[in-house]
Every structure is written in C-alpha cells, then in structure tokens.
C-alpha cells in the first residue's frame, strides 16, 4: 500500500504543495512506506540511462539489478558518467535470472528481445518494455515493418489516449510508445477524435540524435551530424509510421492515413513535430484542444502566439503544443515539442509504472525543463 | 595540349569543362577580357559577406565599393574576419554616390531600401537586389505581407524556372529569390508543371540561423538556439509563403495552394525542405525530375536511396534533391537541401549576374560543399 | 526550525535513502515543517531561471516574488518557457518593496546593483547575491577590474573552501562565486593548499555561452557561436582572474599567480577547465585530492583513466575532477567540469542558502546530470 | 589590360596578384602548361575528402586514381556527398599498382601503412603522406608514442618553418604535419626562435571532432559530442606532444619542454590553441611576430584587439594569430586558429606539393573562410 504524501516529494509537485501541505503532513504520520524494487535491462544505453536518471529522483523506488549486453561486467560509470550515485554499480549480463525478484523490470533492449525475457519473469512482475516488440496490434504490420513473428500486443503506455489509463491500471505488461508516435499522436488525437480534420494527416518531425541510440553508424558521428540536416525513412518508410497510423485510427474510429517524414538535426535530445491536415469545418480547434488536455499533467497547450521549443522540455516529461489554422488553405497546423528520451521513452515508462502500481501518476516526473 | 585560360577561369566548373574546352580555348585567343567592377551595399551582414566570399573567387570581377549602414566607417575585418583579403577595406556609408560608377551593384539591405537606391543609379548599371522588395508581382501581396507601397517587380533570379534565363539575359535589374522559396520551388516545380500532383502542397523547411541575419533578437542567441528546435511563422504566416505560391502557380499555370512551415534548427547554414503533395496519377516522378534537371549545372537529383544533407551543399551553389512516392497514401515526397546563403541568396545573385552579363553561368560558383 | 526528513524528499538523495529510511520516518512524525519564502530578482535571465528551476525542486521552499528590469510586467513563461509551473507568474519591477517580506532574496542582477537593494531589505533577510559586487575583498581589485566604489565583501559561497562552511552558517549575506573561479579554485585548491605545486598556475577554461547571459551582442548570436571557438579576455584581462587569484592565495597562505584564459565554445552550458602547475616534489597528488574531497557531496574525483565531460554534469550541482602528472615536465594537470549555471551559479546559491539556514546542504540539489 | 591566364590561375590568391601580374603574364606567354596527375589513397575519409575538395579547385591538377580500404568498390558519392563532380567515381583498392603512374600520390591512410606503399611507387613520384609515419626524426620517439619500427623521416611539410621551403623544393617525399603541431608550432616558433620565452611552454588546444577521423567510437557519436566538452590525452599522453616538442626544439636550437592538452569541443572543424610561456625579457613580442610572418601568405597576425576564431578560417588555409603579454605574470600568451582539415592537413599537403613542383605556393588554396 502506497504513501500519497510521497508524491509530494517529487520535484514536479513543488508547484502544487501549498494547498495540500497540512493534509499531507497529517497523513504522513499514519502510513507505512514500502519501496518498489526495480531492475533495468539495457542500462548502458540512452533509454536505460534516462530511466535511471528519472528513477533516482523517484520517491518510492529502489534501484536493483542493472544489466547489459556487450557492456556486462563493466562499471555503469564508464557508460553513464552523469549518473554519479550509481557510478560504481557493475552491469550484470541481461538474463531472466538477473532480472527476476524485482517488482518492476524495465526493458530497454534492441527490438525482438523483450518477449523471451518477459516470458521467464514471474507473472506478477510489472514488465515495462521500451522497445517496439509489443506496440503494434496487427501481426501483419509487425511482419511488414520489423519482420518475423509478432510477439503480441501489450497495454500501450500513452495514458493521455482515451481509455488508456483504465487499461494501464490493471496492467502487468506495458509497451512504451515510440518517440515519434508519442508526439505525433498527442498533437493530432483531439483533431481526429472530434472530426475536425480529414483523415489524412502530414507529419514532419525533426529530431535530435539520441533517438537513434548509441549505435555506431557513420552518419551518427558528431562530425557528420553537427552542421547538417538529413531526412530519412521518407515516403512512409519509417517504422513509426504504422504506430502513428494505429493510434490515430483508434482515436478516430476509422482509418487515418499518415504521411510521416523524420528529419535528423544537430542536437542530442528533442523532437519538434509539425502536423497538418485539412479542416472539415469551421469549429475552433483551440477550444477542442483546451478541453482535451485541460486535466493532463504533462500536456500543455501554450498561450496563443507562443510556439513550442524542444529546449523548454529538455529532460522534462512535458509536451508543449500550439495549434493554429491556415485560413487560406483551410488547414489545421499543430506544432508539438517533446524530449524523445523523457516523455518520448523513459518518462512515459515511469508514468505508466506509476499508474499500473496505483502511485500518483506524476511521481518522479517533472514538467520543468533544463534550459538554456 | 592544355588551355590555361580555361581551366583557370573557373576551377569549380572542372566537372563541366571537358566538352567545351576546345571551343572555349579558341575563343580565348581572340577576345579581350574586361574586368567587371562590382559594389556591395550591406557588406557587413551575412548576405553581403557571402557575396564577397564568392566574388573573391570570381575570375572576372574586381571588388569596388563596400558600404554599410550602422557599421560605416569601420574595417570590414571587424565584421567579416573570414574575408582576409578584404580585411582592411573601410566600409562607406550606403549612398547612391558611393555605389555609382560600378558595372554591378549588389544590394543586401533591409526590406524597403532597394528601390530608392536603385532609382539613383545609372540605368546601365546591373542592380542585383538580395532583398524582398522586387520579388512579388502582385502589389496586394506586398501590402499584405510586407506593408506599404509596392516597389514593383524585377526579373526573378531563379534561372532554373522555365523561361527565366531569357528574361535574365537582357536584365539590368534582378530580384534574388528568398532562400525558402528557392529550395521549395526547385523541389516542386517539375511536379506542378507536369501536373503530377494536385495543386495543394505541404512544405516544412528546417533552416539554420543565418537566414535571420545578424539581427540582435533574444531567440537568435547561441544559448537559445543550440540544443533547441522552434517553428515560427506557422499557419501561412511567413512572408515567403506568397513567394512560393507565386512561383509554383506561374509554373503550374494555375493557383497552387502552399502550406508552408519553417523550423529553426541549431546550425548556422543550410535548409532542408520536405515537400509533399497528393499524386494525380501513376506517372513516374523520378523520370520527370531527371528530365527537368538533366542540363542544370546546380540542381542535382541524387541516385535512388541517397538522401540530401545540408552539410553536402555547405558553401556550394548546388541543390541536392531526392524524390519518392508514398505508395500507401499516393503522395509525392521531395526532399531538397540548399545553403541558404549561397544558392539561397548570394550564389543565386552571382549566377544571375553571370547570365545578365553573358558570362559562363557557373563562373565563380562551385558545386563542391565544405564537409564535414 | 527545519525538518531534516524533508531533505530526503529531494531527487538527489534517492541514492542515500536506504540506510536512513527508518530513522527518517520516525523523525518525520515528531517535527513541524515550516516553508521558506524566497524571492528572485532578475527572474527573466539565465541565472534567475536556473535558480527557479532548482527552487521548484527544493522541498522546503515556497516561491514568492519574481522581479525583473526591462521585462517587468510580462509573464515569466515568455522568458522561461521551461518553467511551466511558474509560466503565468507576472514579473514585478525590481524594487526593495517587491522583494521585502521574504526569508531569502536571491539577486541575479547586473554588476553594481546588489548593494543598494540589499541595504533596503530587512537585516534578518538572507540575501544571496549571484553578481560580482561582493566577491572581491580588496577594494583596489574591485576598482581595477570593475571600476568605481567597492560595495564591500560578503561571506563567499564556496563551501568546499577550508573554513567556508563555518562562515556561511551564520551568514545573512552571501556572495556567490563566479563560474570560472568556482571550477578553477576547486581544481587547484588541494594542490596549492598542500604545496604540491609552485605558486604559479595556468588555467584555460572552455565555456558554453550561457555564462555571458542574455546580452544581445553580435558575437553571441547562434550563427556566430555555432561551429566556432574564440578566446577572450586573454592575458589576464578577464574579470574572474582576480577572484581566482584571491581564492587560491587564501588557500595557499601566500600569493598565487594565475594565468587565466577563457575560451567560448558552441554549447549552451558547461565549463571544462584545464589547470596546470609545476610540481614541487614527488608527493602523489591523487591521494591528496582523494582526501581533500572524500566527504564533499558535490566534488567527485573520477576513477583513474576516466576524464570529466561537461555533459555529465549538465543541470547537476556536481563537479567532476581528474588529476594526473606529466612526468616529462614535472607538472600537475587537473581537469574539472562544471555546469556554469548550476554549481557555477544557482546551485552554489542554493547550497549556500541551505547552509545558512541550517538545512541539509544537499536539499534541492542533484549530482545527477542530464545526458546525453 | 588584363591577364586571363593569371587571374584565372588562382582566384583565391586575388589578394596577392597585383605585384606579380606582369611578370607572370609574361611567363604565361612562353610556357607550355602540363597538367599534374594526382592520386589519393584513403579518399573516403575526412583527410582524403578535404584533399579532393582542394584539388578540384586547383588550376594545374587532374584527379586520377581514388582508392580506399573497406570502402573499395563503392561510389565516392556515398562517402563524400559534398564532392559532386566526383560522385560517380568508383573507389579502387589501395594498392601500389592502383596508385602508380601519377605525378603525385597523396596518402591519407591509418598510421603505419605509408612506408610500404611508398616503397613500391616510382622514385620520381611525389609522395605526400598525411599520416604520422614519417614526421618524427627520433626512432625512440616513434617507438614510445606509436610503437614498432620507425619508417624513417621525410621532409616536413610546414613551409613556414625556417629553412623548410629549401628542403621541400627538392623533395619527392613529404610528411604532412599533424593538426595540433601545425597550429602550436606556428603560434610559438617566433617566440622560441628569438628567445622571447623560457623553453617550457603550455598549450591547451580545443578541437573539432573531424581530427579524430571517421572512426566509429562511442565518444565520437553526435549525441555524446554535442553539448559536451572533454579533455583527452592529458599529461603529455597525446601522440602530437613529441611532434610539437621536436618542432619547437629545432627552431629554438635547444630542448623545449611542451605541456600539451587537447580538448574535444562540439564542432566538426577547427582548432583554437592557447599557448603560453614565461617571458625572458621585455622585448615586444608583437614586433617579432609581425616580422616573422610579414611575408607568409597563410599566417596572419590580427590587428591588436581582434582575437582569432575558428569560424573565420573554416575551409581556408589561413592561420589567424594574436599575441599578448600578461604583464602581472610576465607571460606571453598566443592564441591561434586553424582549420584542422585544411591548413591542419590537406591544405598543408597541397601547399607542400606546390613548392615541391615549383608551382605558385598558393595555387588552389584560399585565405577566405566560410562563415558564418
């Protein structure tokens, strides 16, 4: 049984403290606190590192096993020098044995490795998969975009989608959304759900390089990335296209066609998505978006005239949105900014864990970015 | 046996020499060469600096007056430390008197200043305006997007447009296109000209910061720009929207609707434009683009599978293009990369000058970028 | 009277929770918590923004008045879009009246403005000055490097210096060190204190651009900064030279000569200082540094062979150090990394506040960086 | 009346033409020009790419064989998309057979591969080695810093060193200096040659990432490099230390001790070196440097008060210098900027070739940088 006051310990809640301080303090004296033991598989990668950065700030978590593939046997500090409190932890080999015996296991593994590991873990263990294996519902999509046999579909860790929280509340398995699908879906869901736009949307998302992970490819070298912009996976060739299509189609209740182009830009973190579609009528999109996200702790529609920047969400779990109408063309344009490693990956994983365990949804998560 | 004058004229054109060597060498033996005296107004800004960088490498040009506004009286080296051969030149006040008496005057001034200066220059002087004043044909567009009285329309310095070279050949006034319109127009012109796509196009163009000039605005500070992405002028609010619309509509012979969104990214130079539109039929866009640009010295359709990067065109006058079809959506997607200061501004100005003066079009211009 | 257990609520302490949980929980039931009301003058600048980012995560703080100069009257969100919980706060004019009535007032003002404001505040108010006004002890130094009358010397907010904590514990006024002096002093203090090196040191410190603040100067524009490196204040001309000299001379008990050169590099945050001096003997510097910083929560000597990076301390209050000996030259070389806005400014301010108020020194501060 | 062959030979040398025009024009009229056939081994790497970028602009060169190791068999355009005129060239395997039959062979190979290849080439072939194999004169240094048997010493391609041009004029083998040694040596040579400083110098050189080549190492990934600074090879551990020591000791006529620390910064190109030493007397260093470099086409002492930036020399063969005296310490401080790939590698190779072949030293080289 979990201690609400502990939620007050999270940095993000600093702003909400005043009104709740007394009740909080009173309740603190009568509850017993239990710590959640977590493990992270793939702790030497970018997603794993961001999970640990967030979990170190989580009031209810104790960090257990850290595992890796090729880096097993080395100190975490060699790979994640920014995680000082864990620098001397030695990485274990990624095996079910090493991960077993924890309340929560986060998987930050290459595609295709999650199902086998999860199958060996105790049924009661909450398994949160940051990989793609369990995101797609249609095995045909999996086969076309990733190839091979589909591992099956898990509850989808995008709580802001209609009905998602109910499913996550009872979940012991969670599929964390991809970074592009997260920002694209949140940018367009209210519009397609309320039929504001025709079911054909165009998304061009500019991303930092950490989304590609630590893979040693020439085009990811600093010398290649800095001072350059490159598009890739153009013409619907990127694996996140079917995931965005799936999300928006579910929300719309009908097939939504998605033209998606990712662009690689010279920054480590952040995605800025420009999303457009033809308006069906003259409804005011702004009021629809205001209603849709009024109660969401992490999705913020900016005041009119202010546009999102990725720097403003760096390291935070917030999504910043702005909507406008191109009157000449009768098109809706939504711009959204997210940190691909936080709300785009690790933050969504922690947010989903909080819901699944009945913790306050914002525990250990912040809406404050690190800027400049 | 080898022709010194020739290979020496334009090192950059090495690639195109072979076929023309003999005839040109012959001509060398009978012509007397006159050097062209040029002046640059706005020499301390980014466009002015790039003009001078290119003109220093131009075989037929002698650099005359350099003028500025607030920086008049100071050494060029204080503002353009990369232009060593001109470092000790002192900037004159921007006046018609200072600019008169040159064969060519390049204007790199804030919007609204070109017409008055040009009116005072000798009629025979070739005036090349890098500003927006003379780009738009419709006074109503000028009034809506820039405000005030329209200075009139000059021959448009985008030689790759159908018929443009004929107009430029006899021109004494040239309006250099905007950087976004250059890359967007070249990316979509063949498609709209041949009716491959419906007359509604979506352009999202990611740009480096030099396009904004040296203006001292907080959002252009290095601390704000680095590590961040920001959209601006969203929803058709950017002044380049009517220029792109004008270009594509002329090429298509009918109104083309343009949804244009610019995104600011952390690099000094370069624009990567992602351009899409719904296909009208099943023609093969690639062959259309191959034919359209087969003879263009500066527009390069890349081999299938290779995507443009801005680093590959840094400091060069080349445009790199790739086209593909999103079969699921029946959409054409074209990605184009350009250096906003070279082909996007100063290179187009020099290319236009070359045509207007009957010089080889590639004189002083390069298709070789500076990378990494 | 303050509540130690609350310190456990801070993210950074996640790593220290296990052993202290029970005693903490027990103690929690018997104390009364009181919140500290703070004000920030200069809230729209970089130092002010970082102060607020940290204070939002501080368990014992309530954020009161936010003031500014030219930006007074506007929403904080216009200037600090990353501070979502405070976005709608309106900035007041920076006056003593606006700042009065708070337990702590942080001053992040241009040089020369602190003394007058501080004089008008209630004597009991803790005033923490992030500016330079009260750092130098010698009025002659002030006059030479800043000019004008010296405002006097306040307790110096570098707790890691010998004896500093005792002075800070009873302080109602604190002068926060400059960013370069912080990293340079911590890198060299153990060596000069124990006479490991001759009293002439050479420091070359490479810095991100935020140290220059939001000042609108051409050389700070993104287009100028990105892709470039520039030295400035060379030859002992930088105002931080006398501060470093003062610190090291006090620690050494004799005059230490400091050759200091700052270099501006294309990143928003972070300073990497390379510090060298000739060794006096054959003592092992490493063991001296290990002892010197063994109990310091924020200064970390890295394992042999691992070198500091600024990314590893981004947004954290940690300093990462490595020491080595150049045997051929008999020189000590120390490399240190710090975030100029956190431990280099705002983090030191909060750390000093914690000490002055008897709070746990690490309250609201983290040793976890945001990387990559 | 104007001299076509001349102004056309080297646009970049426009600044130096005036005085030599007539005599050169005269010579043009009586000589038959032969084109120099060159080959580049390692054409897919950064040094190879920069060599080709410069050679494409060289008036007297024809580009022959391009070879590679692992990339043999692929199009150059896949690896060097910025070299459009050569995009369709297919890379041959790096063998003596492929490289033979050229007037000049440039070697841009990993250390240890040059000697074997060179031994198989015709004795008359000019071999310019961009690697380290033939830089060091002392086999013991080679064995200590690189290991294994010393390949021997070749004429050193730093023409600005006293006497260097005489040696290069008759050379058929050239060892191109390392990038750090180039900038460090040029920054300090006048001071040590004229005994202005004590023979112990401290160099901290901040570099872009391309100096590390295209090697696929995690710390060179864009995500790691951007937003970070890291020192490496600290304490005299970098292989360029003995080369700098060798250069300065030869110039000084006695052993000069060098404390060298390289720092990796987030930019692709450029090195900024801060170099200091204790002054021996009160001579005016500035006048010594003015004299030393008065006639050098590529080394520029900036006007007092102006400091070098790497952006100003990007893609150019120029070195920008500034000298000052720290009067408090009696130290000389010299700051120098260079492009590590141009003057730091490929530009020096071309400059050395020009001298060895009796071409104008500046042929194909520019003192104009690409900025911003």
UniProtKB/TrEMBL annotation, chains A, B, C, D:
Domain Semialdehyde dehydrogenase NAD-binding: 37-169
Family, per entry: Belongs to the NAGSA dehydrogenase family. Type 1 subfamily.
Functional summary from the UniProt entry: Catalyzes the NADPH-dependent reduction of N-acetyl-5-glutamyl phosphate to yield N-acetyl-L-glutamate 5-semialdehyde.
Entry's Gene Ontology BP terms: L-arginine biosynthetic process
Pathway(s) served: Amino-acid biosynthesis; L-arginine biosynthesis; N(2)-acetyl-L-ornithine from L-glutamate: step 3/4
Catalytic activity: N-acetyl-L-glutamate 5-semialdehyde + phosphate + NADP(+) = N-acetyl-L-glutamyl 5-phosphate + NADPH + H(+)
Protein name as it appears in the record: N-acetyl-gamma-glutamyl-phosphate reductase
Organism field: Actinokineospora iranica
Active site: 179
Record-level Gene Ontology MF annotations: N-acetyl-gamma-glutamyl-phosphate reductase activity; NAD binding; NADP+ binding
GO cellular component, as recorded: cytoplasm
Main localization category: cytoplasm
EC nos: 1.2.1.38
Top-rank EC class of the record's enzyme: oxidoreductase
Compartmental location: Cytoplasm
Keywords: Amino-acid biosynthesis, Arginine biosynthesis, Cytoplasm, NADP, Oxidoreductase
């Amino acid at each position: 049984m979990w201690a609400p006051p502990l939620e007050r310990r999270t940095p993000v809640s600093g702003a909400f403290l005043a009104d709740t301080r007394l009740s909080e303090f009173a309740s603190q004296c009568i509850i017993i606190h239990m710590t959640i033991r977590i493990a992270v598989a793939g702790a030497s990668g970018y997603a794993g590192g961001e999970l640990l950065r967030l979990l170190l700030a989580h009031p209810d978590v104790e960090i257990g096993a850290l595992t890796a593939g090729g880096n097993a046997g080395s100190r975490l500090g060699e790979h994640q020098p920014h995680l000082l409190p864990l620098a001397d932890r030695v990485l274990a080999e990624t095996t079910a044995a090493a991960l077993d015996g924890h309340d929560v296991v986060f998987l930050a593994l290459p595609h295709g490795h999650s199902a086998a590991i999860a199958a060996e873990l105790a049924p009661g263990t909450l398994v949160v998969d940051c990989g793609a294996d369990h995101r797609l519902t249609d095995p045909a999509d999996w086969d076309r975009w990733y190839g091979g046999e589909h591992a099956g579909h898990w509850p989808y860790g995008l709580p802001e989608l209609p009905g998602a929280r109910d499913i996550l509340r009872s979940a012991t398995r969670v599929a964390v959304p991809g970074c592009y699908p997260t920002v694209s879906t949140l940018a367009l869901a209210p519009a397609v759900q309320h039929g504001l736009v025709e079911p054909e949307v165009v998304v061009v998302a500019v991303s930092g390089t950490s989304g590609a992970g630590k893979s040693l490819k020439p085009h990811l070298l600093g010398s290649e990335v800095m001072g350059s912009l490159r598009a890739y996976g153009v013409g619907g060739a990127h694996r996140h296209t079917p995931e965005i299509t799936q999300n928006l189609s579910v929300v719309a209740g009908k097939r939504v066609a998605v033209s998606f182009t990712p662009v690689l830009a010279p920054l480590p973190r952040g995605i800025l998505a420009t999303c457009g579609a033809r308006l069906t009528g003259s409804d005011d999109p702004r009021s629809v978006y205001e209603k849709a996200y009024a109660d969401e702790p992490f999705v913020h529609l900016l005041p009119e005239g202010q546009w999102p920047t990725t720097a403003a969400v760096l390291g935070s779990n917030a999504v910043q949105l702005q909507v406008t109408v191109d009157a000449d063309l009768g098109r809706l344009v939504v711009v959204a900014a997210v940190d691909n490693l936080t709300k785009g990956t690790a933050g969504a994983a922690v947010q989903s864990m909080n819901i699944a365990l009945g913790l306050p949804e914002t525990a250990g998560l912040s809406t404050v970015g690190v800027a400049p």
